[in-house]
Amino acid sequence: MTSPLSTTVPAVRSIRLHQPMRFWITLLQALLTGLLCAFLIVPMVMSVLAGLTVNYFRGLSSGLTLHWITTVLSTYSDSVMASLYVAAAALAITLLTGVPAGYALARSQTRVSRLIEEMLVLPIAVPGLASALAILAIYGGFSVFRNSLWFIVVGHVVFTLPFMVRSVAAVCASVDLRTLEEGAASLGASFRQRCLTIVLPNAWPGVLAGALTVVTLSLGEFNLTWMLHTPDTKTLPVGLADAYASMRIEIGSAYTIIFFAITMPLLIAMQMLGVGPGGTVNRKLQRNPKAENAKP
Length: 296
Known about the structure:
Elements: H1 4-50, H2 67-75, H3 77-107, H4 111-120, H5 122-125, H6 128-139, H7 143-146, H8 149-174, H9 177-186, H10 191-220, H11 223-228, H12 236-246, H13 249-273, H14 289-293
Helix pairs in contact: 1-13, 2-13, 3-8, 3-10, 3-12, 6-8, 8-10, 9-10, 10-13, 12-13
């Protein structure tokens, strides 16, 4: 019969041997993570500093200034407002069309609905330049439409609509709205009552996730916008590219600061709400500490 001490001593020795190894593995992971963060963050920090320095080539020793930011706001204010206008218009259209479409796809279980859902994803799989060429080929002949911001809005709706549809459809499918609505209908609730009391309260996380995704993608979309824009309809990303190509690097960097100031709050909000890359929401059940601590 073996004693407990004879089995405990080897286990303790094994833990002591593994502790240094775990320490070095943890240290290596932290080092690699730090290097990766530096690789990603340092260029952005340098770009921001370039827009705040008097002379980029002299560095911080030349002093800090807001002159370049005020220059961009006065010179490219039309581009900034155009980008916000396009994003707002694209959001309004995707809300009006994408929310009902996502709701309908979630309730339908037919093969046709799955085929429609896959077809809606095609604009994401196709490069933005190809989508822009298709829009130009079909609608480019209408000169008034071609020279307006609505021409860019159409392209942004085509690109961002799948994110709204899939976000709403995923949330609606996860809560099984069909069963809830059937139960409410059996109690005499009308379609309007079911929408206001069942559909919208359960679907709002998907709607919010889709809205944040649409606005963020619209503000940052360059490839498609570059093909669809005209000299009178420049948006923020197109103006940013022009600033880096034809102006001083300080002005281009100041343009980057303004772009970050607009998009970063949206990205932070998406991160806080758990919005995934496809526009879906990670719905985590919140535990009630009081209920967990309560004893039966």
